[in-house]
Records
---
Amino acid sequence: MPMTSMSRGRWLAALCLVPFGLVFFAFQIAPLLWVAVHSVQTAEGWSLANFSRILESRFYRQAIRHSLEVSLWSSLFGLLIALLGSYSLHRVESRLRDFVNAFATMTSNFAGVPLAFAFIILLGFNGALTLLLRQIGWIEDFNLYSKTGLIVVYTYFQIPLGVLLLYPAFDALREDWRDAAALLGAPTWRYWLHIGLPVLTPALVGTFVILLANALGAYATVYALTTGNFNIVPIRIAALVAGDINLDPWLASALAMLLVGLMAFITLVHQWLLRRSHHAAR
Amino acid sequence: MSFLVIEGLHKRYGATSVFSDIRCNIERGEFVTLLGPSGCGKSTLLRCVAGLTEVDGGAIRLDGQDLLPLPPQKRGIGMVFQSYALFPNMTVAQNVAFGLRMQKVARAERARRVAEVLALVELTELADRYPQQLSGGQSQRVALARSLVTRPRLLLLDEPLSALDARIRKHLREEIRRIQRELGLTTLFVTHDQEEALTLSDRILLMDAGRIVQDGSAEALYTQPASAFAAGFIGHYNLLDAETASRLLGRPVSGRVAIRPEAIRLGSGPLSGEIRGRSLLGNVIRYRVASRGVELSVDVLNRSAADLLLSGRTVALEIAPEAIRELEG
Amino acid sequence: MRRAESGPARLYHRLVVWALFLILLLPLAGTLLYSLATSWSATVLPSGLTLKWYLALWSDARFLTAFGHSLVVCVGALLLSVLLILPLLFVVHYHFPRLDGLMNVLILLPFAIPPVVSSVGLLQLYAGGPLPLTGTPWILIGCYFTVALPFMYRAISNNLLAINLRDLMDAARVHGASTWQAAFWVVLPNLRKGVVVALFLSFSFLLGEFVFANLLVGTRYETLQVYLNNMRNSSGHFNSALVISYFFFVLVCTWIANHLNRDLP
């Protein structure tokens, strides 16, 4: 059957997809497949030994615990600050709003190594802010390189992302709901409790999930801040493939799959919550 | 003393005055319409009565109580919005019950009153639906039910029918009037539609550029517009300036003159005119008739097709003298 | 219509927004001050101001090389992006619209899979064997391509939807252009602004990438962020000048992108 010019065009078009497919496969899919396959292998062959090693080791369990704690708290605080900030951004005049919005977008680029250094300057052992706060008497001694310090730094880079995601959600809140609620006897806090927050909840949960994923996978900030000395999952993974000792790419793969699995689990919970609220509201 | 008293109310946004020196008295159980073109300040006035917008001066008293220091939560006023403002995360029943929850009414009593008011607006079967699943007319009825269930002393309606299509609008406005009469509820209704105002109200307050320019019954407003603006806004008056009017009527006239189109009789009379054209408005035919260099609108009941007058025909006409209204301003 | 706020509410909102601004500004301001300070240790404020750190930085050969390396890799990745994504998007939107759904899922992968995880596989796959890419800029270009992919794809995709690709193509072809000519002479110019904006934004994002650069290449092809990390033990003032210079560069790129965005039809 002779090829019409149409289907020949389509074949040529499909050919255009090939280079993209190759590069995407080589640098995104293939590594992922490698990690998935080798997570259930050890030097001896196929087994689940990697996962049992991780789950039985106090050291690795601590890394997982640290990852969860830092991510959860920084996402929570970041969400809260972004929530209050976005709400107020919505209510101020346009010049101030546009300026701060643009500034937030720009500071979302300020993450990783530069951010770690900036925080060391401010809140390190001899940091300017540490000294100031110590003088005022607000803090006794603050260790930036501890879990608490990490939560502070992580919260910082979660804020711009949170603001970017939450700000448009407030467009869904209509002014006349507020008016109607007021006339029906609801003070401001009851408006938020019964109407405002419930309407915002899908956006809030969605943002929280994205912030969580963002924090769980973060490597540069904690590496630069603690020179790779803090026990947290991304550091552990990197240490197992690029460190000086104890190279074990299979264990690293297992740990990586755990991380990805965790993120997938959180996303699934989010989708399930969304579907439930959809049934309710739609 | 009147039920709702508004005195010397004024409000400005920056340098612009929204309304100034508003005064009116509204009796208990009255249905009063605030009528006027867009931007005349009627919606803002309503919002000030509700407490949603601050006023810059004056007084509002409801049943003797000074309203201005009270927040909207405490004024005992119900309001229906043009955009319905139904809470999207609650069912119809929950929306309606909201005000009762705020008043801490017990659950059983709440359910009973919600059912009662839903029956009043004929929406009992939709109690478990969400606002997104309702049509415009249904939404507005829910909004009405929600504002009535708390037994407010005053009901405010801010152009509640403007977002609905014509058929539903007519049906709903009759329902609103029926319910209002049944409950004896003092009502303030804002609209820019003069037909709505004329059919629904006990009294109309006509507003223009922030002032009340006429206050009276629908009948009075229609037959005796106080000014050129009123005549231009209500009905389809023929508005003539002094010179044209004198020419037409054959006598000196001091100010502008308004003549209702149905007050001009065709077929007999001392004047004579030529039919310039006509439009069919259903039960009324509106002719354009030129007489003594003046073009007039004349409305005639559409009794039969045989009576239709053709363009170009000369016809005698008579203007009832009591229908000639001389205006100030 | 934004309701006019009452006095105390207005004040509260302005305070919150200013507080937000200050929180975000603080680390930057601190770094800026540090980069301009003669010395600043164990005191709340620096002792003096100077530009010497910047002069030292911009005359440092290693810095300039690192900066150059970063530019090469980022520009290379973006070039690759344009070469691969533009035809891809065109083909998907014009010939295979049902693929768009699949594509939207695929471009989630760079977000869903943290770079650390990909690095595990990348190091094993390309350390030796048939394709020894680790330690060369090529692997970075490939990885940065996947990083920029979601931004580039979404931006150009939205742009294509806005210009109504089918109608444009049909109009061009009715006038006698072949598909390729139509794509090149008619569609592309309409995409130019959107592509350029996406490029600038992706560029500023890529400049800050550290994970792939450090794990896959490290000092063998030192990029800006890796250099920054490696200089951690030198003077904090020097590092601050470095950070501020980098951020200033990012600022300029974002500003250009915003400026161009505003002119968009």
---
Amino acid sequence: MPEQNINMNNHTETNDIANLIDKLRIMDDKNLRELRRWQIILGIMAIFYIIICIIRPDTIVLVDTTGLLVFFVMYTVYFFKLSRKDYSIPVKQVLLNTKKAYRFVNPVFIISAIVAAPMIFGSIHTLFSRYFNVPDWNIEPLYFELSVFGIFFASVLIVAYVVWHARYHKVMMEINQNLKELEE
Amino acid sequence: MEDREKVFKQLIIENHDKIYRICSYHSGSRDDCNDLYQQVLINIWQALRTFRGDSKISTWIYRIALNTAIDHTRAESRHLQNRRKFEIENVSYYQNQSEDRWQKIQEEKMLETLKSEIIQLSIIDKLIMSLVMEDVSSKEIADIVGISEGNVRVKVHRIKENLKLTIGGQHNA
């Protein structure tokens, strides 16, 4: 969530509140712009994906774009589901909701990692065959560029998965501990 | 939009001390407390859009403050180190006071000891005790936390017993 530098102390004066409201208004505008930006990115991705599905249904491009789409959907879900939670409900419910949100997002990361692994393998295979000019392997020139992109993109997916996995376990452990304490 | 700003302004004027005190239990230093306080205000502002008046306004504010505090604690890795620093700052403040106020200072010091012990409780115990220190009723605590009133009473009793033992042990030592 974007944060503004709001100077508030124990003795809130009317002027401070007016300043704070100004800054919160700016924050609202910024959040709205961010939401619109994500809608546009997802819209473009979806159109790109549909076009690829129509013109090249049998290529590695489809795998790449599927991965890319999964990544963006995953990130958007994560962003909106977790960063905009309702704080005005009971503490226990918030903990349960956070747990649910993390569980919901987790399979998307796992799918991304599963997509990433063969993508790396396929891309390396294509690059090698291109570099060593293996006659049996039929390579289209387009695949070369796509393979470089594929390795880069799949690496990003795998790093994202590892980072997420560590965070997921840490947060789940804490939430489970809090819930256990509440129910004791 | 105008209404939202008006309501927000009124809420902050009426409740900023209460919110700040709650934040102080869940932060390790003054800066940390200010950060948490700021985040609580941001969350109050955002939650105002969906406020339907189903619960008491104090319950609503406490919920936001405590839920934000839990998130803040989760994100705050330097929390433990700062907590100790905060305690030491408070003690040195008392040592600089004149002797004629000794009795009052002793009482305040006792309260500070209690506060510093509460700060070291687990997050759930801490949030319940921070509400007890604010004189919130068991029923309202149950509403805020989302557990039964009986469960709240048992927890408060158990935490108080543990605090008595800890503080008693410190005084005997």
